[in-house]
Amino acid sequence: RYFDEIRLFEIGRVFRLEGKKIREKKMISGVLGAKMERVRKRVEKSLFSEGKGIIDLLLEKMGVADVWYDDFLAETNEMRMFQPAKRALVKTENKTLGWLGEINKTSLSVLGIGESVFAFELDFELLNELVEREVAYRAPSKYPAIVRDLSLLVQPQTKIDQVLDIIENIGGALIIDTELFDVYEKGGQKGLAFRIIYQSNERTLTDVEVNASQQKIIKAMEERGWEVRR
User: Fold this and answer.
1) What's the CATH number for 146-229?
2) Which superfamily is assigned to 5-132 in CATH?
3) What are the residue ranges spanned by the domains of the chain?
4) Is the pTM for the entire model greater than 0.70?
5) Does this chain's domain 5-132 share its CATH topology with 146-229?
6) Do 45 and 110 contact (CB within 8 A), yes or no?
7) What is the pLDDT of residues 41-76, one digit of tens each?
8) CA gap 169, 178 in Å, rounded
9) What are the two backbone dihedrals, phi and then psi, of residue 184, each rounded to the nearest 5 degrees?
10) What Cα–Cα distance (Å) separates residue 224 from each residue in 79, 110, 113, 189?
């Protein structure tokens, strides 16, 4: 009521029933809330992408690498409270680190909230384990990176890792990182926006070869019936 936006986080222990046993875990959770007027004014950046950007920055500063985002794979209480096109699992290696998403209007209405809210929860114990691991040093490339953004519309049931597999398999060694920076819904389809970073440790890449790789990725996506936004 008194603020245009709020940002809160908490570290604490939670108790969950897993099978017939109650398991205690230490978690870090948080919310980002904003009035609808503020969200509408910042149409270039959704609340979901803003919240995900905070998580990206947190994990980057902690030195947690190889983080990627995947769709919820099963109906859970956490899944039901989010907007279908604005929710994701936070994963690293083959482990689930947590979840994040923008809460849907039905859940907000039950809580008596009329504004937009983004929420996340991360496994604090797993996070500590990842941070404490020895980090292998890799010298940064002395050659410049080339960045390309790619936005597309896919069927609602399409998984994020299906799209990532195509990008990374076709791009191969030229791609050093692929970041999902926005998820949205349009016309009953799921919109995904990726930032693809090309770089070599041996030479300066040219626009010609990067564009050729990008076109191969786009062609592969269109062959699957996905609409690439141009």
Assistant:
1) 3.30.70.380
2) Bira Bifunctional Protein; Domain 2 (3.30.930.10)
3) 5-132, 146-229
4) no
5) no
6) no
7) 544 457 888 888 888 888 877 878 778 888 765 556
8) 12
9) -150, 175
10) 27, 39, 40, 14
